[in-house]
Amino acid sequence: MATLFPTHSSLRNMLITFTIIFFASSLLSSSSAASFKKIYAFGDSFTDTGNTEAHTGPNGFVHVSNPPYGTTFFHHPTNRYSDGRLVIDFVAESLSLPFLPPFRDSKANKTHGVNFAVAGSTAINHEFFVRNNLSLDITPESIETQMIWFNRYLESQGCRDSEPGSDRCREVFDDALFWVGEIGVNDYAYTLGSTVSGDTIRRLAIYSFTEFLHTLLKKGAKYVVVEGLPTTGCFPLAMTLAPSDDRDDIGCVKSVNNQTNAHNLVLQSKLSELRQQFPQAVIVYADYWNAYRTVMKSPASYGIKESFKACCGTGGEPYNFDVFNTCGSPSVTACPDPYEYINWDGVHLTEAMYKVVTGMFIDGNLSDPPFKTLLERKVRKP
Predict the structure, then answer these.
(1) pTM passes above 0.85
(2) Annotation says 345 is catalytic
(3) Which of 35, 45, 82, 208 is catalytic?
(4) How are the residues of the chain apportioned to helix, strand and coil, as percentages rounded to the nearest 5?
(5) φ, ψ dihedrals at 38, nearest 5°
(6) Which of 1, 47, 65, 155 is an S-S bond match for 117, by CB 3.0 to 4.6 Å?
(7) How do residues 24-44 score in pLDDT, each as one tens digit?
């Protein structure tokens, strides 16, 4: 009869095995945590951790400073467009770094990086929208603005363009991950209903964004992650505005998703060109499009019960969204279970969805090259 208790020999073997696993996991964890000492983030409201305040926010979403924004994790509004953490917050956590402070917070500790993303930002310069009388654009910031802010930050650190290889500049760029969140969705949104074509927006937005990335890489960025655009045709905003017969295979607005997909394809082509121009850099494409689609195709697999309806909104079925009465308004309430929703306020996502998407970028197969490749390259080349 076999004994129910382990022998001395088996205990010894178990202890050795446990020790090996423990130290292996510790080494993996420490190499990952030590790989980057700081993060610099750029983008729009999907990445903004506080640069935009209520009175300067994008039209229709000016109540980000009010509850129930921030209710899930922070338990108070933080000027993040969600109920809790964003992708960039989960990225920071995965690297054992603190949450990134917004650039506009002059009192924040910026030792471990800065967030330059600002809600409402466009890839195309703001002047384009002014010239075309596109009054929806009440946010004057663009990706160019964020580069201006980044240059101010560099100067504050003693890093000047005339001295790209100086010790001060190396302190800024060495051990730094550049996370460029999705940007471009607002460019299309601001021109909705105008005579400006989607093709024009795509051409101008991609050109401007590519110039931004080129400038970052030329300054010395060596580890860059670029998010593509999500499936914007799945947002309650798009679903509410589009005719009911404009739908694709996952039930979202086909015309909008086709536009977004076309944008992402051109963007990926431009990233390939940048990789050839800057072979010393690692440029990762984070596939937001397929991350979102993956959840839409099998929501229950990720604990999601509501794919289309906004958690925080009004208007009832089918999307719980009213463009004239959005989240944060006095009469608008949030659902009690945002972790079961994809969408938070009609455009922006719940913390639960951001967490799932981050996992697909960091640990899954929806980054090209894989994020772990970037980490391995950084560990090998301190």
Answers:
(1) yes
(2) yes
(3) 45
(4) 45, 10, 45
(5) -155, 160
(6) 47
(7) 344 344 444 458 999 999 999
